[in-house]
Design brief:
alpha/beta; Arc Repressor Mutant, subunit A; D-Maltodextrin-Binding Protein, domain 2; two-stranded antiparallel sheet; 24% strand; transcription regulation; DNA-binding; HTH-type_LysR_regulators; transcription
């Protein structure tokens, strides 16, 4: 029997099928979008069927594409393993793991990547995109990342998430501030302060504003910044005070700042791992997910 298609065409098909994005697939394979499209078209011509349904907004597998998907992955992964078994011959499809995450959690992910992923998959390629909370969610939704690690308190429609941990907020201020000798400060007491806060669209801002609305309190955000590092620098200069997650304050290790707890209410930020709802994880992404939360972890309520 004569095979009328090439392995590179199956690889192209899998890249698009796994990401449901021609642009993301082309980037992963390091080819131009037009070259990727031609490979998929040649495979469709050889199989005499359409593998994808494309609109201006989304890419979906056709019925034939769904039937081919699992078999094509088995074929390519088996051939990759065989080729990798020959000494000195590199795997022609090195597994790639793309992680979108908020910057504050990168330090926690490195040991997992080092010990659980790269040790078991020494030829694996890792891509980390440090993004805002909303950008992290969007990257996973658009299949530009296999998984995301960020905050589960914002807009997570279309995503499945598992909580990794929760943390509270502290009020950071310059040493000598009137609150600096206290253990806790209520959120209402911030009404009389010049508060440095995140921009309106940030995940932290949405979380705080929502909690304050339930208390009937409207905080006055006197200064707004995009990054918490900037807020801490402004607080150090005495420009104002800033509410930040406890871990971010502790990581700053700024000797000129002090922090006190924020209560009434106690607001907790949920940090978790995210994947696209209904989209099976690729093998390497599944290993990463399981290393973080286990295969049977309970999904967080949206």
């Amino acid at each position: 029997m004569r095979i009328n298609y090439e392995i590179s065409e199956l690889v192209a098909f899998l890249a698009v099928a796994e990401r449901l994005s021609y642009a993301a697939a082309a980037e992963e394979l390091n080819v131009s979008p037009s070259s990727l499209t031609r490979r998929v078209q040649r495979l469709e011509y050889a199989l005499e069927c359409k593998l994808f349904e494309r609109t201006t907004r989304e890419v979906k597998l056709s019925l034939a594409g769904k039937q081919l998907f699992s078999r094509a992955r088995e074929i390519v992964e088996t051939l990759s393993e065989v080729q990798a078994s020959f000494k000195g011959v590199p795997n022609f499809r090195s597994p790639t793991l793309t992680i979108a995450c908020v910057p504050s959690v990168i330090r926690e992910l490195i040991p997992v990547i080092q010990d659980d992923i790269l040790r078991a998959n020494p030829h694996a390629r890792i891509r980390i995109s440090d993004l805002s909370s909303n950008e992290t969610n969007d990257a996973v939704l658009r299949s530009n990342a296999d998984v995301g690690v960020g905050y589960l308190d914002g807009h997570t429609e279309g995503l499945d998430g598992v909580i990794l941990r929760e943390e509270t907020f502290v009020l950071a201020m310059r040493k000598g501030h009137e609150f600096s000798g206290r253990n806790n400060v209520s959120w209402r007491e911030l009404l009389a302060q010049r508060v440095i806060g995140p921009v309106r669209e940030s995940g932290i801002r949405i979380l705080i504003d929502s909690a304050m609305a339930k208390e009937g309190v409207t905080l006055k955000w006197f200064h707004e910044v995009r990054h918490t590092d900037t807020a801490l620098l402004m607080a150090e200069a005495g420009i104002g005070v800033t509410a930040v997650p406890k871990s971010i304050y502790e990581e700053s290790k700024n000797p000129n700042l002090v922090a006190v707890g924020l209560i009434e209410p106690e607001i907790k930020r949920r940090i978790g791992v995210l994947k696209r709802h209904g989209q099976p994880l690729r093998p390497l992404a599944r290993e990463f997910w399981n290393a973080l939360v286990g295969p049977n972890a309970q999904l967080a309520p949206s």
